[in-house]
């Protein structure tokens, strides 16, 4: 069963580290909401009545939407798609937007999982990152949502901030553990090109991130997780019993997904589609039909590379069956490289999966690329 | 014969030679404007991109003036110091030369040395001030330079612009009026100078020649005097835009010969063609067997590609006889070839051609010159590779090649250029003011210093204004020692170099620092050490890679991330593993990029 992703490209203000597609101007928001509703209708036929197993509102900041705008999108979803009765329906929200009334509305329209962008419980970090909430809001919004009956709550935290000591990071995690959450995403602060953070670092106004410090934080996190009942199931994701994110997990296991909204990606039958990452052009293109987009047909080796890439990051590991679907030759290719790989001791196999030990997760991308297959394009 | 004019063009790189040549072809209707793919003469892709001529060419034009028809043979010359022998042979095939000087930049070193070559051969020089359309043109000042240099009259200098076509008719007229018709005896035994050769994969080698005496007919049995080989002239003809077959090429004319020769090295530029039956008595003067000056190892990145590399080198040699190579085996890099080149540019060209024309991915090691090692037992050895240097205990002395270097620059840069040359163990032997603010500096210095980074440094010191030319003079004794490099304790022979003893410590330190910068972080720490014999003189450490994973990998990230990692992997393919350490190509050239 596929998943449905809807991208809401609006934010109240720009976080210094963010390179996602968003806009802080909201005056054409109504047109964009209508355009999303239109795209939902336009693309329903691609998916032939298959019920959606998961729905995910990401951004940007979906909680920037007014309740009425949310209704418009939800109505369009239900008009055009079947949603499985047990579907995980996730909504990304920022603490400052999660007022009681808003939470009640989310619950009423069927949202059963919240992913809250807390990032930090520390005032100095929040200021530095230009977040709109304060530390007290970060805690109260989670408690509020739980008391309104949202049973699945995830929060995001950022580590590897130069000013964040090991002790302070542990303290962050302990605050999180006391909250009624069943999922935790922890992201290493990454300096993306073109972001305000990158600029400030270049100008010497901020300290650059340090890989060694990030690694220390990561190792602290790994040690800490089991003590609070969290299992570390992907490089940046931890869950308590039953709390794994179904929607995101589907990305890593290669399932189909439909992405709606500017900049959203879709994936089905080895075809990936990228919607245009520009709000105005997105709105304009939907006046005459489908959203402007590009298509990428994945070659079989590219599919293999993606299986390796995503599988190396998870505790479940690389699904051998998925590799075999691309051909036995790829399985042999993988095993051949494994034989002499310097990290071969970190890689274990079961009947069904190949797993990279979490000790080596902090180098997972480099290791994955060692196993990539590149056609001999130059010969 | 009296209506034939043979001429070449002398110009510095970028002074607009090719563009002006195209105009001449266009104004004589040799090509139409539409055919004139910009710069017809430079027909190798590489040449057009770099804007320089690597191999010389020849082309025949017809032009009518005052009711008379003239044949104008333009013999194009390479514009780089690496190819100065080829230039000298092209010059020997002509009676006149167009001296093209950029009106904005003035005379450069390369121009001067080629000009001297032309004057030695008594060529009639037609000075041309090109790029007059440029806003920065300083015609009066550059005219002064030209007058000083060749002693012509100011009014003999033709202002021109290859871009706008200004001056082209005046140039054509000057070629006819000023350049003498070829002399020579049509009845004498055949004597023709080979000034170039071109490889064609269907026809074999085209030898380009200029007939000095006698004539050559189709089917003649001919002999190349320097190599002593004989051939039948299967096809002869004239050089239009494409070769045009003829039955006879006569005294004074320029033509081509096809005789079933498959390899460029059989046709030596400067050789004399004569008849087997009725040979001329003397070879044309000036023939030299060109010797490589710069040596470097070329290795396949993938060791399995060795045979393919050999095949590619052999193919390359078919049309570039100045390339030499012999098998070399390196402990670090496996099997490859020790190659000899005419100079640094030639080396770069070969590397690029291997990659473009043969799709080879190769590693090139640090270039060096050819040393003479004299042993205590009286033997002497030619050392083309630092790793071949005999044990110091057996060495009596080492000699290295010296050059005479000519630098022409603006006066304000003299001080810093002298400092550079002295750092490079050079000795100033002469200093001439060409004009009030242009100086010619003559140095004698070890050629080994030139193959490192001299040229780049010279250019940056002088903001691009210094031009440079050199000629080998002799071998001199030097206190050279071998500096070795180790990565995690394993010696990397391909990184060894021979350097002067006084510079060893400083050099060792710098190269370790540079390698630290160039070696990518790996999953373990890498120790870089420089040593002389068993003594470590410098050390640096590359820290282990700590983090190599992106934070987010959701629906919208997967494709971008895959592409990024695929690109990284493509880069890794260009690295060579030595012991446990992966070394990128740039590290093998680190020596060339020291500050």
Model description:
Chain A has 14 helices and 15 strands. Chain A has 379 residues and is α/β, with parallel strands linked by helices. Chain A folds into two domains: 3-251, Aldolase class I (TIM Barrel, Alpha-Beta Barrel), CATH 3.20.20.70; 300-378, Arc Repressor Mutant, subunit A (Orthogonal Bundle). In chain A, the strands form three sheets. Chain A has a nine-stranded mixed sheet with strand order 7-8-6-5-4-3-2-1-9, sandwiched between helices. A three-stranded antiparallel sheet of chain A has the order 10-11-12, with no helix packed on it. Chain A has a three-stranded antiparallel sheet with strand order 13-15-14. In chain A, β1, α1 and β2 (52-59) form a beta-alpha-beta unit. In chain A, α6 (166-178) packs parallel to α8 (211-227) and α12 (320-326) crosses α13 (328-340). Chain B is α+β, with helices and mostly antiparallel strands. Chain B is built from 13 helices and 33 strands. In chain B, β30 and β31 form a beta hairpin. In chain B, α7 packs across α8 and α9 packs antiparallel against α10. The radius of gyration of chain B is 27 Å and the shape is globular. The interface between A and B is large, with 47 and 27 residues.
Annotation field: number of helices of chain A: 14
What best-fitting shape of chain B do the alpha-carbon axes yield? globular
Summed up, the helix count of chain B is 13
> How far apart, in Å, are the first and last alpha carbons of chain B?
57 Å
Q: Which chain pair has the greatest contact?
A: A-B, 47 and 27 residues
Helix content of chain B: 25-40%
The average pLDDT of chain A is 94
> What about the largest sheet of chain A?
9 strands, mixed
Using the coordinates shown, work out and report the CATH topology of the largest domain in chain A: TIM Barrel
